[in-house]
Amino acid sequence: MSSFHTSNRQIVPIVRGLASSVWVPRIVLGTFISTAILRPSIYQSFLTALWLSLYSSRLYRFSGFETVETVLCYIIIEPLYTYKFGRNPHLRIDLRGRSRSTVDSGRPAIPKMRRPSKRMGEMFLYAAPLLLLDFTMIKKFAGVPVTEIRRSGGYSFEVVNSSFADISPSFLLPTVHNFTLYCPLQLTRALPVASPSSRRLCFELIASFFIYDTLFFFIHIAFHRVKFLAKIHQPHHTHAEMHPQVTNKLSVAERISLVLLANFALNIIGSHVLTRSAFVPLFVYLLVEVHSGLDLPWSYDKLMPFGWGAGSRVHANHHRTGNGAFAPFFSWWDWGCESLDKRWKQKRT
């Protein structure tokens, strides 16, 4: 009996170590992603059934679905991080002049944050311009015939002599909805019939996040280096301490640019609509994570290998200094620029 208790005491630290180790989620995620890419047949029946259900859903066909999905994801994810921030002072990065020992010795004051009931105007300012675009511009997705795109945009087959009759399926050539009494607004979106494979979903998600991270890196530099853009971006950095609500402390121009960049990254690779639906919660999660001001044990940057993820600590330092870490999620563009800068300085000396 005593030997049983002894062995039990030996096992407990091992279990606790595994629970706190990043290798557990790494193995789980790695297995899921690798099987999704190498053995897509495992997930195909599920994806087909899911897509058939979504395809026949009026809510999913609603032209403002992605805007609604984004808002819902934000109002679920951000409060969870805000609650974690308020209840766990030892996890707060706190790069505003206080040492970690000071944080651990007491309960530091929580920075001024707004209650959810006081933030309805913030949600309206975010959603209103996006819904305006949703209701006035025709949605163009890969794999959708032009005839279906025309029908969703209010262009009947009888309007053959109209200058708007020839609609390009390319998202690079935006088309305004045909406003009529019969179809006053762009309320539905045409969807592809076929479901994607898990391999396609994975590759498209990886590619779209890489493209978004790349484009944002250069635009973010412009928001810091170009004077009139810097004035627009400055309020995003005016806070006493990094916290989750800083995520949405943006001007209307910055919010729209985020969404348009994400749309471009998804559209330029011809991503499936289901990829777009999966992109939204991941995108919102990453945005809130890097602005959370929390050093979490299983944060995405700790799960990614080789230091590829930038993470909340790096982004908090960017907010404090205004330098470096211009890419929102990953590290390679900042590494590349630092390497080029060092070589340039070495050549000059």
Give a structural overview.
By secondary structure, this protein is mainly alpha-helical. It is 60% helix and 0% strand. It has 15 helices and no strands. It has helices at residues 2-20, 23-38, 41-55, 58-61, 65-87, 100-105, 120-136, 146-152, 198-225, 227-233, 252-267, 273-290, 300-303, 311-321, 332-348. α9 packs across α10. The termini are far apart.
Short characterization:
This protein has 349 residues and is mainly alpha-helical.
The helix content is 55-70%
Order of helices and strands: HHHHHHHHHHHHHHH
Assign the structural class, choosing from mainly alpha, mainly beta, alpha/beta, alpha+beta, or little secondary structure: mainly alpha
- Main beta-sheet strand count, sense and barrel state: none
Average pLDDT rating: 86
First and last CA, distance: 73 Å
Tally of helical segments: 15
- The outline comes out as globular
Strand segment tally? 0
Q: What is the strand content?
A: under 5%
Radius of gyration: 24 Å
Residue ranges: pLDDT <50 for 5 or more in a row? 1-19
Keywords:
349 residues, mainly alpha, 15 helices, 0% strand, disordered N terminus
Task: Break the fold down into its secondary structure elements and pairings.
Blueprint: H1 2-20, H2 23-38, H3 41-55, H4 58-61, H5 65-87, H6 100-105, H7 120-136, H8 146-152, H9 198-225, H10 227-233, H11 252-267, H12 273-290, H13 300-303, H14 311-321, H15 332-348
Helix pairs in contact: 2-9, 5-12, 7-11, 9-10, 9-11, 9-12
